[in-house]
Amino acid sequence: MDPKLIQFAIVLVFVPAAVIGYILLIERVLAFVPPKRQPSVRPWLWLAPAFLFLTIFLIYPMVQTLIRSLSDKLGTNFVGLLNYQYIFTNGDSLSSLKNSVIWLVLLTILAVGSGLLVAILFDRVRYESLAKSLVFMPLAISFVGAGVIWKFMFDYKPAGATQIGTLNAAATGLGFDPVAWLQNAPANTIALIIVATWIWTGFCMVILSGALKGISTELLEAARVDGATELQVFRTITFPLLLPTIAVVSTTMIITALKAFDIVYVMTGGNFDTNIVALRMYQQLSTGDTGRAAALAVVLLALTLPVMVYNVRRFREQEAQR
Amino acid sequence: MTTAAQTATITAVSKRRFPKPGKMVLHTVIAVILFIWLLPTVGMLVNSLRPAAAVSSTGWWTVFSNPQITIENYQHVLNQNGIASAFVNSLLITFPSVVISVAVAAFAAYAFAWMNFRGREVLFILVVALLVVPLQSTLVPVLRLFRDLGVANTPLGPFLGVWLAHTGYGLPFAVYLLRNYMGGLPKEVMESADIDGAGTAVKFFRLVVPMSVPALASLVIFQFLFIWNDLLVALVYLGAGNNANLPLTVILANLGTSLGGDWQYLMAAAFISMALPLIVFFALQRYFVRGITGGAVKG
Fold first, then answer.
1. Which residues on A lie below 8 Å from B233 (Cβ)?
2. What's the pTM value of the predicted model, to 2 decimals?
3. SS3 B119
4. What value of ipTM does the predicted structure carry?
């Protein structure tokens, strides 16, 4: 038998036993604590593993990255803002920043827009759940897998040769010249964003559709009885009521766009002016330039800050309403 | 107006809303959308089943006029390109990461939802804030930490680091989702358990966990898809060159650059990597949808 499978069998038993064992252990320990003090000690023991993980893998590294972004290649000498100066003057870094902003704007608009459109359309037919799961399916496929699928959709052969890529076959079939979708900037970045839209529309659709079902049908029918057209109903009732949910989905997409990595890595490797911050950072990391990689990470983090503040605010409002 | 009359008017109105031609337009538009959505995947699936010569010279749609089907591509990638062992690696990475993250998150969520302690709100706001942190901003220090601690030299090998990292990255979302769900469990049930003198561990495993199954199930699927499909964490912590331990995503990405023109193998490999997530997704999608809408639309 494959030694890996034996390893897997051990893991299958050991890991669940370890996590459940932790709870049994702390409750055993708590039995020695005077009953009066138990309620003040217990929560911390239940929270401890989670905060240990959060500290080691998110909080501590974030602080370290911040410090490292002010250091040189090896992380030994303080260089001030030199790495940031490099990012904001170097052509490749600037172009990756520009592309990330394009991703942020376009992916959010396209994914939320098409998610809303299909949620509304599917809401009106009986085969709604089937249609939804088909649109949702790409999210289950890895982004790498999606990259492979679309690389072949976008495949390009020079004019005159037989096109084996779906899109160029359609283009030449209609009498147009074949297009090198992934080579020509800035169309190639848009092509990559379309792949991401294909993946994320289902996610937006599911959440928006949930909110759509929450709108009272009596309200909609009343408006229709009063003679409102479908468009008016959407503009004056449905859309305003969906707005909070649209905001939630949009923030999720903004973060997704900023973190995007796999699709570009697989489809163009960041060439042909398609690079984005997350991939550029990985490239700096693999050439050993940790200072610049860290500075790029900080830029990325800074871009997420407004969303973080917005989320925390929204959360506090929700809690206040409880 | 009587209720019956009202209903009649409403039915009449809703019927008028979509007269027959309108309904046809609606169905057609939906059919076109679904066609576009499925086309890429169907094309790839067809090509993964066609012989090499056919794939490189003609489009996948010619399969309808000239059906040539083979499973040779699958046999090839399973034998030659290390796809089978990568599949095992993906399992080895995914399973423990999912178990640890969901369990640890459930413990914390329970404390947040049902225990009173000072700093509860502040700590939970910290979790909400961490939801958006790009994991890229943690890569360098964690990589260094793993190296300093010699994580790769433990008996569990390089996988240990990946499990722990995935757990850390998945936790904010997991704690957030589960706390929202657990907070909504009926108070009376929890209080009656207290009166019966049930211990905290008993209450957690006998009451809270069974009642939270929908949220737990959706979280498991979420974490499974997220970790199974991850490329970046595996690339950075396992290293792109270390072939024996790499998961499917990395192998697939490497094939994409090295195979160049050998589309048919790439397609077969891609489809193998998607098979398990697709099965999981279609088997459990009811939970999945319920889980994310429950977590995200609340309020």
1. none
2. 0.85
3. coil
4. 0.84
